Amino acid sequence: MNEPKVNLTEMLTNIGNTARIAAQGLATVPTTLKAAALRHAAAAIRADGPAILAANAQDIAAAEANGLSGAMLDRLRLDVARLEATAAGVEAVAGLPDPVGDVIDRAERPNGLILTRVRVPIGVIGIIYESRPNVTADAGALAVMAGNAAILRGGSEAIHSNRAIHAAMVRGLAAGGLPEGAVQLIQTTDRAAVGAMLAAEGLIDLIIPRGGKSLVARVQAEARVPVLAHLDGLNHSYVDRAADPAMARDIVVNAKLRRTGVCGATETLLIDRGFADPLPILTGLLDAGCELRGDAEVRALHPAILKANDDDWDTEYLDAILSVKLVDGVDAAIAHIAAHGSHHTDAIITADEPTADHFLARVDSAIVMWNASTQFADGGEFGLGAEIGIATGRLHARGPVALEGLTTYKWIVRGTGQTRP
After folding, report:
1. Domain of 338?
2. What is the pLDDT of residues 51-101, one digit of tens each?
3. Shared-domain flag, residues 102 and 249
4. Do residues 255 and 347 touch, judged by C-beta distance below 8 A?
5. SS3 for 1-14, per residue?
6. What is the rounded CA–CA span in Å between residue 373 and residue 309?
7. What does pTM read for this prediction?
8. 199-217 tens-digit pLDDT
9. Are the C-beta atoms of residues 138 and 171 closer than 8 Å to each other?
10. What stretches in the chain show pLDDT beneath 70?
11. Could you tell me the CATH number of the domain that includes residue 15?
12. How many CB atoms neighbour CB 166 within 10 A?
C-alpha cells in the first residue's frame, strides 16, 4: 500500500493533544449522554453497513493474496451477521452500568476526616490490535463509556475495514454531542507508528496491546507508558478421572472447535491416566476435523494421531489442531499448565468437587473454569458487554477488560477545618 510519508512524532503529538482535550471533557459527561452517543454510533455502523463490508472485502482480498492463514482470515472477515453483532455490541455497552463516580469505599477517621475512594477515568488510552476490525468499535465504545479518549492503531491487514468503522463511529458520537476526538484512529499503516505510540509518554496514559505474542512482546519491551497486556491464549482443558465421559467429550470438542481463531480456544488437552476411556473424546475431535498431536502413549490410542514435538506444548495454534497429553492426576495437570500455559484460561472437567476446588485454587490464570468450555472466556459471556481484551497479568485488571478495567480511582477527603498536629 503506497501512502504519503508522514511525520509520526508530529502526528502523534497532534492526536494526543486532541485526545487529552476530549478526555478532560468526557470525564464529567453524564451517563445518559454517553449512552445516547453510543447508540448514535451503533446506528451509524448499521447505516454504513454496505460501505463497511465493501471495505472489508478489500482487506480480505489483499490478505488472501498475501497468504494470510485461515484462522487470521476468519478474524479479519466481516459479514452481515458479524457487523450486526458489532453494532449490537456498541449498544450493549451503552446499556451497561457506568463505573465513573462509583464509591469504592468510605471511611471516617477519628479526627473527623471523611475519606472516599471514587472511580474515575484513566484518561487517554492507546489500543494496538491486529486483524479483528470489530475491535475498532468495541474498544472505542468501552473507552468512551468509561469516560476515556481512545487512540486506536489496528493492523495494516484491516486498514480499510477499520477506517470505515471508525468513520461511522465518529459521525455517530458527534451526532450524540461528544467530541470527535474521543475516538481517533491512526490512519497510516507505517509500522513505526506503533513505536511512536509506545514512546508517547505524557500523551497516552495506558497502552493495551491485543494481538499475537510478537506484538505484545514488542509493546512490553519498548513502552514508556504503562501497559495492560493481552497475551496469547495458550489454554488447557483437563479431563479428570472423575469426569462424566459424555460431558467431557462435548466440552472438549466445543472448547477446541467452536471457533478455532479466538483467544479462548483450548490448545492443549490434558487427560488423567485414571480416566476410564479417552477414546470417545479423541474420536469426537477427529471426526469433527481436528488434527491431534501427542506423544507415543497418546498415539497408541488412535492411528490418526500425529507425533507431537516439544514446541507443540507451547503453541497457540488458532487452528483445528490440538496437542494431547496423558497426566498422572490433577497435580500433574497443574504442573503442566504452570510450565506451558499463558495464564489466560484453563478448565477442569470433573464430577469431584474437592478436585475441582483444588484446581481452581492452584492454577494461576486470569480465568479458571469447572465443567465449562474455555470458549466462554469472553467479556460478553461474562455480562461485561464488549471487551478490549483478556488481561493475563496480575496488576490493575485481570480477565476480560471492560468498563471497570478502564477506570482508576482517586481519594476524596472532606474535612471541617482539621489541621495535622
Report:
1. 235-376
2. 999 999 999 999 999 999 887 898 899 999 999 999 999 999 999 999 999
3. no
4. yes
5. CCCCCCCHHHHHHH
6. 26
7. 0.85
8. 999 999 999 998 777 888 8
9. no
10. 1-2
11. 3.40.605.10
12. 21
